[in-house]
Amino acid sequence: MRCFGATSRSRIACIMNLSGFTLPEWLPWRAILPCVAIGYLALVRMLRFQALRKMEHKYAAYLSDPYRLDYKQARDVMQLSLLYDTPFLFAFGTQWALIKSYGIATGTPLLVKTRQLCDPQKIGKRAEDTAVFLMEFLVGDMDSERGRLAMAKLNWLHRQYAADIVRTDYVHTLALFVLEPQLWIGRYEWRALTELEKVAYLIYWREIAHRMGFGDMVPETLEELEKWKAEYERTHLYFIPENRIVTDASVELFLRGTPKFLHGFMRKLFVSFIDEKDVRLALGYPDPPAWATLLTTAFFRVRGFVIRHLFLPRLDKLEPLGKPGGNGRICRSSLNIAFEPWYVADSWYNRLVLWVKTGGKMGPSADRFKSDGYLPEELGPVGFEKIGKESVREEAQSLEEYVRRGGSAGVGCPFAFQT
């Protein structure tokens, strides 16, 4: 008991003596914490790039010419940034790719016409379905049965509006999906993407484009894609009212969980994320105030610095892909929803997580949010879940043959597997 009346230093020394452990008399106590801190920082530095070095060692033969990767290798390379090193800004950049696509005046009239992205009752499901499709293609195996069914359903949905869709708009959206995450990661993340990773994005997205029927329109290199995007925006990026309608609806979706007194503040931050003036003009937004740009830039830069120098890497890759349930349908994790809990199973854990995430406003629901899960062939707007399923399954079977023959590299041209 004599230890409890001592000073902090002598108390620790007393306890260590009672336990049989003693420190050398020459070791100054004031040096222990700095040594621990230096050791921790050295450990962070040693482990931070370990996964990247391992991946580059695996694909060392492709570092000099990454365009030799096939789409399966490209997917493997992408997993590092998508699920391990930079998942936050990958997802953030992808969201802003969608927002920036609303500046293309040939695409937004259809979005307004269908009401899928401007009706408050529909936009949440549209956003979550988009996330599910992307997860099935980017995280899941698009050669698998569920991946092929998801691709076939996406194609079927697009065919319902084929007369109103400008095919080159597909290429522009793909360019944004490839380039925008790279831009955000390169500017603000704790490390930039390597050339191997950047090219892998293009190769994999071009394979997706082949399966959607416009792969022959996608440029072969990143430099050509950036040039194509810039030229396309010179003639197609301009303001029409529909651009602002769709973008405003997306802003309102982002603000759903924010107290109303903060909405004005958050809208200014939203605009500050769109750093290209021509894009802001096309969306109908004014320049952001200087303080908003400074605040968002400072946040992202501080975040990148802290992660790079102070955080150990995550223990394992994220697993955002939905898991099949006992009923054969696929359920999403409550941790991975963005706005509404579509396809989240009704369990006490998910109820608790959603109660925290939404402030008690939303929870799993069989009637409202299909808590029994989804089938890939049923994704899409309400009213389209049960129709076209036979056509979707037939195309998925055709895709199986396409995959067996090596994808676009083996077949040679888009949809040749259907002839």
TrEMBL record:
InterPro entries registered for this protein in UniProt: MPAB, MPAB/Lcp_cat_dom
Keyword tRNA processing applies: no
Does the UniProt entry include the keyword Aminoacyl-tRNA synthetase? no
- The membrane-spanning stretches of this chain are 26-47
Question: Which key words tag this protein in UniProt?
Answer: Membrane, Transmembrane, Transmembrane helix
GO MF terms on file? oxidoreductase activity
Q: Which Pfam family would be a valid example here?
A: MPAB_Lcp_cat
Query: Where in the numbering of this chain does the ER-bound oxygenase mpaB/mpaB'/Rubber oxygenase catalytic domain appear?
Result: 122-296
Name of the protein in its database record: ER-bound oxygenase mpaB/mpaB'/Rubber oxygenase catalytic domain-containing protein
